[in-house]
Design brief:
By secondary structure, the chain is an alpha/beta fold. It contains eleven helices and ten strands. It has one domain (7-255): Rossmann fold (3-Layer(aba) Sandwich). Helix content is 37%, strand content 24%. The protein is globular. The structure holds adenosine-5'-triphosphate (ATP) and magnesium ion. Magnesium ion (MG) is lined by residues 45-46, 177.
Length: 271
């Protein structure tokens, strides 16, 4: 018998007013696995991830069910949801600079993420935990750098800081929405490696979102391809990557640059 998924998205539809953004999607994520959600801009990836955290604007209508560890997140009160957010369910956003507060040192911000769910924690353990989270994400010289502000770090370092903040409460599910898109290719590879290592160490379950199927295939066990709000294909990463069955997946693959891409030719069009 198959194990119960940690996260079960069932028949979920999301619309903004008259505009449908996500149409009746179903996805399962098992403990310790990474589910890659891939699709072009506007296909509904972020709407799906924001629905999980119940962070969609009030104008959005959601139907269906999102069951996390046996609870339907869509029927929880705001108060109950707040207890999950940033603790069991944590998120890394695309743009590290806008996700960090520019007027607070990074040490204060990570400490705040921890304190939000552990109000009684003493100063000494707070500092130890903040430093330990920064060591885990391999930020150089954390003792000195906790006093620095976001603008004093590189893009890759800022992403490491956000990852430290996202894992400090030992989440069961980490949602990473385009975590490497704003980074150059070398730094992108380092951040992917870091996420993979953290995942293995903590047996983390991860929803990894990207428009780039090549990136997703490096980290995901299971891949779901989204187009115009629908899941058009899903399966084990190798199968989707090596034997794509849907024409849209083939187009996504063809439009991903590789070492042998002829850069003088335009990328394949995606309708
Ligand atoms: N707050 C909102 N109000 C109205 N429409 C929205 C809102 N957020 C998203 N949409 C619409 O929902 C659809 C899906 O958007 P979504 O942000 O989920 O796309 P995405 O797949 O994450 O794209 P990208 O790769 O560009 O981040 C789009 O048509 C978008 O215009
Ligand atoms: Mg998005």
């Amino acid at each position: 018998m198959e194990a119960t998924p940690l996260l079960e998205i069932k028949d979920v539809s999301i619309s903004f007013g008259q505009l449908p953004a996500v149409k009746n999607i179903s996805l399962n994520l098992y403990k310790g696995n990474t589910l890659g959600l891939v699709g072009e801009s506007g296909s509904g990836k972020s709407a799906t991830s924001l629905a999980l955290l119940r962070l969609l604007p009030p104008s959005a209508q959601i139907t269906g069910s999102i069951t996390f560890a046996g609870q339907n997140l869509l029927s929880l009160s705001e108060e109950e949801m707040r207890r999950h957010r940033g603790r069991d369910l944590s998120m890394i956003f695309q743009e590290p600079l806008t996700a960090l507060n520019p007027v607070l040192s990074i040490g204060e911000q990570i400490a705040e993420a921890l304190r939000a769910h552990n109000p009684a924690i003493d100063r000494k353990s707070l500092k130890e935990k903040v430093l330990s989270s920064l060591r885990q994400v391999a930020l150089p010289d954390p003792e000195r750098r906790i006093h620095d502000y976001p603008h004093q770090f590189s893009g890759g370092q800022r992403q490491r800081i956000l990852i430290a903040m996202a894992i400090i409460n030992q989440p069961r599910l980490l949602i990473a929405d385009e975590p490497t898109t704003a980074l150059d290719v070398t730094v992108q590879a380092q951040i992917l490696r870091l996420l993979k290592d953290l995942q293995a160490q903590h047996d983390l379950s991860m929803l990894f979102i990207s428009h780039d199927l090549a990136v997703v295939s490096q980290i995901a066990d299971h891949v779901a391809v989204m187009q115009h709000g629908e899941i058009v294909e899903q399966g084990p990463a190798e199968t989707v990557f090596l034997h794509p069955s849907h024409p849209y997946t083939r187009k996504l693959l063809a439009s991903a640059p590789t070492m042998t891409t002829d850069r003088s030719r335009p990328l394949a069009e995606i309708p």
